[in-house]
Amino acid sequence: MNARRHRALLAAVAEMLEPGEQVQATSLVNLSQVSVKKNIAVGLAAAVLSGGTIIAAATPQPMYLAASGTRLFLFQANPAFAKPDRHVATFRIPEVKRSEVKHGLVKHSFVLLHEPTGSALRIFFPRLAAGRDLDAIAALIPTATA
Question: For a tag site, which of 34, 51, 102, 139 has the least CB within 10 Å?
Fold first, then answer.
């Protein structure tokens, strides 16, 4: 994440932090994976409907993830401007567990399990941006035991 996006995310999260709480890691993530089949279908439909003049591809909604020592914050990313659009969710770290990190060719991911509700969310980190951000965020969240 570039410096301008990082500053905008920190400003958005600052309003939500409790006294003494600090952001320890941030990253640009995706919450859903767009399958190859869906991308091909969208591309073919756009090409047929436009007579071959337009090509399209489906992309997941980018999100910002900020982690403090006690909470995770998710914000919808504005694709046109380097700033968070709106707050989507906050998770208390003691209430969540994560799966092992899956390392893929294009992206890395883990499943975040919210224990009180039993709901799960797969978080994808782009491979080029993942690196230390993924490691720092994963280190804050306890791993689920089978």
Answer: 51
Whole-prediction pTM: 0.78
Task: State the virtual CA torsion across 77, 22, 11, 127 in degrees, nearest 10.
Answer: -30
- With beta carbons less than 8 A apart as the criterion, state whether 26 and 10 touch: yes
Q: What stretch of H or E contains 9?
A: helix 3-14
DSSP state of 2: -
Q: CB 112: neighbour CB atoms within 10 A?
A: 22
Q: Are 31 and 122 in contact (CB under 8 A)?
A: yes
More confident residue, 40 or 7: 7
CA–CA separation, 52 vs 34, rounded Å?
Answer: 23
Q: Name every residue whose Cβ is closer than 8 Å to that of residue 30 and which is 6 or more positions away in sequence.
A: 60, 61, 62, 63, 107, 123, 124, 126
